[in-house]
Give the backbone structure.
Amino acid sequence: IYQSMLFAQRRALHAQVAAGLLARFGEAPERWSAVLAQHYQLAEQPEQALPHYIAAARQAQGRYANSEALTLFEQALAIAPRLPAASASETAARLRDIYEPMGDIRALTGEYDAARSAYEGVLANLERQGREGAALQRARIERKIGGSYEQQGKLDAALPHLERGWELIAGGPSGREADLERAEILSALGWVLFRRADLGPAQAHLERALAFLQPHDAERERARVLNRLGGLAWQSGELELADQYVRQSLAASQRNGDLVAQANALANLSVLAGTMGRFARAAEHGEQALQLHE
């Protein structure tokens, strides 16, 4: 029946289905993002389909459905050229909304070359616009490129990107977004230096990161910095101090509701307790970590 319809009739019916879904479920349109995107695309209304594809992809990304998210982002990318003519800045923003999260997913799944290709596409896009005011965006992408190298153990390749990210925003205006990005870059720099056994500079960078986080509600990043400070203290043989840092990290991740970070902190506490001969506590923390991972 469907194949026997004229294309114009199909387009009209798909548009009616999309309108009907919005009319009935408009209070929770996010539940229908993928379906709405498909109907708008088949109705040949790409300007309506694109935001729904991006919303559906971000929802999939948020629940770690990585293959589904990538497929949805790729569908968004496929229809982006079909949108009505827009300004250069609007086009660039659309592409960033697609390429950057695609890079994040590729990095998460260990596809580091593909992740960097996506990130470098965002940087090239910003450079083509000549957006000197986009320093914060550029710094974030440089940090993510550096992070992809760090995750591969390519520390010498990671450092220039992290340092370039810091240079872009070190002297810029304050504010929550800028402070959090400065903290993330300093934390990443500190971790790379720690892995290179440059413990003094690593400590300084991590403490500065913590200071930038102090005025803000940023428990996720605070937990990460505290956990890294714990690792540095452990490496220096200061086991009690390491235990304090990791417990603070655990408390921050509990406030944030991040189960993965809680499990990792508990695993680290288990190792620390075992190193200090507190075997019952080590077993308790290890079991708690396993339960959270499950």
